[in-house]
Automatic annotation (TrEMBL):
Belongs to the mTERF family. This is Mitochondrial transcription termination factor family protein. Keywords: Transcription, Transcription regulation, Transcription termination, Transit peptide. Pfam families: mTERF (PF02536). It comes from Zingiber officinale (Ginger). One of its GO terms (molecular function) is nucleic acid binding. One of its GO terms (biological process) is DNA-templated transcription termination. It comes from the Eukaryota.
Length: 471
């Protein structure tokens, strides 16, 4: 699909060029997929201003042809000397080609700044507050507007005010990394009033520090919205002296009301009460940022595979944040195999999901891999596990239906499809799950397969009936 998409775009570009149509919003530098040929000094006429500028950039700054072409689009010949001074200075402060291209693309005027009088003092300031190594070019190329701010009127006062709250340079750097715009705002009017209000309500400085370091957006949001979020969190009973309070306020203050209502609706539609939702949020505020699809899939997995009720899930709401495919399902599969073989006691507790990968591997995989070698592949996600001994599966409502034999065969198809998918061959294309399903289905005399998001339709190969059996 991706190759076809690339080919289609490439063909579209060729047709556009042939017809002489002007493309709007053309990229300022060659596309990374290679639809445009890399720049070469010999490919542009010697009298082309861009060529002359790019050649000077290559000679003076030692950057590649492509980076030089990108930057040359933003440089005027009469300011070339100043641009060269700026680029040389930035390289001295650790800016790589990618940083330079991004910075110039977002803030072209940086090339006409006075390198020594204007730019260097700001770079030194950022270094002094702790932006060292790759942090400096990464942050400034991502948020170049900081270089437009006055050093005396904005950057220095903001650093002092933030440092009075955050105490250490390390906290200040983390705050800037998590909120790139923070240093460029008017901290005195945007942030300090909310900090004072939090202190007046008994929120300690260490909690405020967490809020500012990790969730700076919350402190510059609309004051009314901030106050509403604060009141709502207090009603939930979250203790203002705990860091959970900072996480909850940080999430709720920037979360649109519509999204909050959607999260309530999603979980309540899965059988949760409003109290369940609020309790889970109070323990793990980040659950409100999980997509609706992931929330549904995870809750259904916990209910169907583990028999967890909403009350049980609320005890460990962090599981809702975990990857279903990379953590929850593989660990459940490993433990199911071990329980089925009698290697561990039956039962499943949330702690199995919470322990580190290293501890889980040591406690359940390395320890039992000789007696159950399949768990090595299962934990890697190479194979899925399907047990015909599982009570919840083998004694479901389907066992009472008249088509029980056909449904049992269908389960076998699913089992084989999960465990016998051939390895992908990159030269001829990979095998899809659907293709494998059809191959296995034919072995059980089924010829028709149609899939929807939640159902599979099959038809017996030699059946005279045209009815589809849905399961």
């Amino acid at each position: 699909m991706f190759r076809r998409l690339c080919a289609a775009v490439h063909n579209r570009l060729q047709v556009t060029a042939t017809l002489g149509h002007r493309r709007t919003a053309a990229p300022s530098c060659p596309h990374f997929l290679g639809f445009v040929k890399p720049y070469s000094a010999s490919s542009v006429g010697a009298d082309d201003p861009s060529s002359l500028t790019a050649s000077s950039l290559i000679r003076s700054c030692g950057i590649s042809d492509r980076a030089a072409l990108c930057i040359s689009k933003k440089v005027q010949l009469d300011t070339l000397d100043r641009a060269l001074s700026v680029l040389t200075l930035l390289k001295d402060y650790g800016f790589e080609e990618a940083h330079l291209v991004r910075l110039v693309d977002r803030l072209p005027r940086v090339l006409v700044m006075d390198a020594e009088k204007t730019l260097k003092p700001k770079l030194e300031h950022f270094r002094r507050i702790g932006l060292v190594g790759t942090a400096l070019p990464e942050i400034l190329s991502a948020s170049p507007d900081l270089l437009r701010r006055s050093l005396e009127k904005r950057l220095l006062p903001n650093a002092e005010l933030l440092k009075s709250i955050l105490i250490t340079n390390a906290n200040l750097v983390n705050a800037i990394k998590n909120s790139l715009w923070l240093m460029g705002l008017d901290i005195r009017t945007k942030v300090l009033p909310k900090v004072d209000a939090l202190r007046a309500h008994g929120v300690p400085d260490d909690v405020i520090c967490v809020l500012l370091t990790r969730y700076g957006d919350a402190l510059v949001t609309d004051t009314n919205r901030f106050n509403e979020a604060f009141d709502k969190i207090k009603k939930m009973g979250i203790c203002p002296k705990k860091t959970t309070f900072a996480r909850a306020l940080g999430m709720l203050a920037i979360l649109p009301q519509k999204k909050w209502e959607e999260r309530l609706e999603t979980l309540m539609g899965l059988g949760w009460s409003q109290d369940n939702v609020l309790e889970a949020f109070s323990k793990q505020p980040h659950i409100v940022w999980i997509s609706t699809e992931k929330t549904r899939n995870t809750v259904k997995f916990l209910e169907e595979k583990l028999g967890w009720t909403p009350e049980r899930t609320v005890k460990n709401p962090v599981v809702l944040l975990m990857s279903l495919e990379k953590r929850l399902m593989p660990r459940h599969a490993v433990l199911s195999i071990l329980m089925h073989k009698g290697l561990i006691k039956t039962g499943f507790i949330g702690d199995h999901f919470l322990i580190s990968n290293e501890k889980f591997m040591k406690q359940f995989v390395t320890k039992y891999q000789e007696k159950a070698p399949e768990i090595v592949e299962v934990i890697k996600g190479v194979k899925s596990y399907f047990s015909f001994e599982e009570d919840r599966l083998m004694h479901g409502n389907w066992a009472k239906e008249s088509t029980v034999d056909i449904i049992l065969l269908f389960f076998k198809i699913l089992a084989l499809s999960h465990s016998a998918i051939p390895k992908s061959n990159k030269k001829i294309g990979g095998f899809t799950y659907e293709a494998t399903f059809l191959v296995v289905a034919r072995e059980f005399d089924f010829e028709f397969c149609k899939r929807t998001q939640s159902s599979v339709f099959i038809r017996e190969k030699y059946s005279s009936s045209e009815d589809l059996i849905e399961r």
